[in-house]
Specification:
Layout (H helix, E strand, L loop, with lengths): L2 H19 L1 H20 L3 H21 L4 H8 L17
Keywords: Hydrolase
Protein name: Nucleotide pyrophosphohydrolase
GO molecular function: hydrolase activity
């Protein structure tokens, strides 16, 4: 699945809920999912980590849709096949 297809799927499934909820509440859902991911990582629960990563990705898609942002274009602009900080591939940054 391409990123654009993922984003369209999230829109088809949830845009009506996301628009009703609004960006601030949608962001809070993302933060909650990040917390659940942190807990799964703390427990080293691989299956739950997998599930929570998918949830986080879905909520990022929801926010992008609310702001009419093409995630693939934004990602490629920020990460054009090299590190945005040092400009190298692979990254040679120390932090």
């Amino acid at each position: 699945m391409e990123i654009a297809e993922f984003q369209q799927l999230m829109s088809d499934l949830y845009a009506h809920n996301d628009k009703r909820r609004g960006p601030s509440a949608t962001m809070l859902w993302l933060v909650e999912e990040v917390g659940e991911l942190a807990e799964a990582i703390r427990r080293d629960d691989s299956e739950n980590i997998r599930e929570e990563l998918a949830d986080c990705f879905a909520w990022v898609g929801a926010l992008a849709n609310l702001y009419d942002i093409d995630l693939e274009a934004a990602f490629l602009e920020k990460y054009p096949d090299k590190c945005p900080s040092c400009g190298k591939k692979p990254c040679i940054c120390t932090d």
